[in-house]
Amino acid sequence: MEKTFICHTLADTEKAAGEIAGLLQGREVIAYFGDLGAGKTTFTRYLCAALGVKDEVTSPTFAMVHEYHTGPFPVYHFDMYRVDGEDSLFSTGYYDYLGNGLLLIEWSENIEDLLPEDAWRITLSYHGEGRIIRLENGL
Questions:
Q1: Which residues constitute the domain of residue 7?
Q2: The whole model's pTM is what?
Q3: Neighbours of 93 (CB within 10 A)
Q4: Contacts (Cβ under 8 Å, ≥6 apart) of 14
Q5: Per the structure, how many domains does the chain have?
């Protein structure tokens, strides 16, 4: 399945996140791709809100992973910006999280070869004054 959302406002981004949230079962790996400032963390905030997560969603840049347990299933929010191979990926605990909740992974470019084959891909990019959010998954 592929779907593209053109988002001119934050409300458009929130709507796109809500639509994608409605497709999730809670065991997916969602790999984000996009430049710095493309809106990965903002999109994650809206996605988690649409899932009913009550925790404050912030960038996991320094923590590497944030865990949210207030929604219908666990959500694990990763930042792979500083990951530079399988050894450093292993140290994040990534492999322990697989299959135990929804994994949302910022900077997936850095671990693209190590993602599960059935990982969903969300690419965020600039488009004039807004954003393009492109979803690709195995549904």
A1: 2-136
A2: 0.92
A3: 13
A4: 46, 49, 50
A5: 1
